[in-house]
Write a structure and sequence with these properties.
5 strands; 342 residues; two-stranded parallel sheet; mainly alpha; 8 helices
Length: 342
């Protein structure tokens, strides 16, 4: 994994910058406010509406589904809707948006230097996860992976198509995440990219808009009728987003376990998330499962990944959350190596 060149060493790392999200992960607030601090910002369709002009049924190379008989989680084949949008088109757009975000962070001294302990930590965990990504998406082998730490108070992290990873300072420091919990988040976010959820939703939106347009024309509906139809289409697509989140939870759980990180941290992570989340909207109107639902799903799938974790080589290095001195890192197992704070 690589990161963009950092500013001069004498520039301080600012941790309270206001940084706009890339359009592919732009803020998405639901009615009543989204409860999940990690996912209250995602609208993968943002900024790429013009890409629909380039849709083509044969625009993307097919990649094989995972074998049915395998050890680990079972999430089924990916959606065929993703094939409506060329993968390289999505990845190019993501790379451009990610680069713009990095430039904005650098201009505000809010891009961590290459030697920052927390960026070293993120790169170390990412390097352990990366070898297990190709099974989920053969394109990952050719991705130009990047990891950056952004100096913002937001509880946020993402992995854009093409392997563009960013963690925000706020999620590391406010939740005081141990390495296993960081691996759960990184695995989850990486799973979104591997399973091509952005590409899938773009394909589904193109189909939905096509159907709405045809239906409105056939029924003779005016603009008001089309607006109602659009609202119905949004409710229909909410299901896919909830499914995407559950799928990312499970794939991320397996990725982290294979990398040697305790999958049980998925439960402690969402306990922390639940504590940080107030005023959750009803699950039916949210694109993300509620924390209790999420934790039940993770708990049900732990037996499928626990053997993978037990056999996996464990990390030789352990790091602490920001502000935790070396040797006192939460979650650092005895005998697994050094603990490094930041």
């Amino acid at each position: 994994m690589s990161h963009h060149p950092a500013p001069a060493a004498d520039c301080l790392f600012r941790t309270d910058a206001e940084l706009p999200l890339p359009a592919l992960v732009a803020a998405r607030r639901h009615a009543g406010g989204c409860a999940c601090p990690l996912h209250a910002r995602r609208r993968v369709m943002g900024g790429l509406a013009g890409a629909s002009a380039g849709l083509a049924l044969g625009g993307a190379a097919m990649w094989p589904a995972l074998a049915q008989a395998r050890e680990g989680v079972d999430v089924g084949p990916r959606s065929k809707a993703a094939d409506l949008v060329p993968a390289d088109q999505i990845e190019r757009a993501a790379s451009q948006q990610y680069g713009q975000l990095v430039q904005q962070a650098r201009a505000k001294n809010a891009l961590a230097l290459s030697g920052h302990p927390q960026l070293v930590r993120l790169n170390y965990i990412a390097e352990r996860i990366r070898p297990f990504c190709n099974e989920w998406n053969p394109r990952a082998q050719g991705w130009r992976w990047e990891v950056n730490l952004l100096g913002s108070k937001e509880l946020n992290a993402f992995c854009m198509p093409g392997g563009k990873i960013a963690f925000y300072w706020g999620i590391l420091t406010q939740l005081q995440l141990n390495d296993d919990e960081v691996a759960m988040i990184m695995g989850h976010e990486t799973a979104h990219a591997l399973r091509e959820h952005a590409r899938e939703r773009m394909g589904k939106q193109s189909l939905t808009q096509l159907g709405i347009g045809l239906g409105a024309a056939i029924l003779g509906l005016g603009s008001a009728g089309r607006q109602l139809a659009d609202m119905g289409g949004q409710l229909l697509t909410l299901k896919y987003s909830r499914d995407d989140e559950t799928e990312a939870d499970l794939v991320g759980l397996e990725l982290a376990a294979r990398a040697g990180y305790d999958p049980g941290a998925g439960l402690t992570l969402w306990q922390k998330m639940e504590e940080a989340s107030k005023g959750a909207p009803p699950q039916f109107l949210s694109t993300h499962p509620s924390s209790p639902t999420r934790m039940r799903t993770i708990e049900q799938n732990l037996p499928k990944v626990q053997p993978l974790f037990e056999r996996a080589p464990k990390p030789e290095r352990r790091f602490g959350p920001p502000g935790v001195p070396a040797g006192a890192a939460s979650g650092a197992a005895a005998g697994t190596g050094r603990a490094n704070g930041g």
